[in-house]
Amino acid sequence: MRSVPDSGTAWATAQFAAGAASGVALVLLAWPAVARELKPVRCAACRGMSWNACEACMGRGKTGLRLPGDPPARLSYCKTCAGRGRCPCAACSGTGVENNWLYGPTANPGWGPRGQWRDPDRPPPTKR
Description:
Blueprint: H1 10-38, E1 51-53, E2 62-63, E3 76-77, E4 86-88
Antiparallel strand pairs: 1-4, 2-3
């Protein structure tokens, strides 16, 4: 069994060798970029925490507003977040990892490191 195509000419063998050498060179040059993409990257939307503050209750867990001087109003638990004040991040499917297609969501993501920013010198802006 031969790995070189059986064409019978030296020209075909030289073309095969040149193609193999250029393929190896391309892999060696492209590997740093590929390796960077294969590392887990923190989600910029939730900053790697896997959740965002609920927008319906502003993270309070309760809806209904009572200002000083108003008649007593009834506060109720937020139906969007079930009173927790936070919702799973939709951008990363609640994993905290931006490229979660590579590191699929887990049942219990737990606590701990969630990867790193794409550019550690310029992290995403904070929400205010």
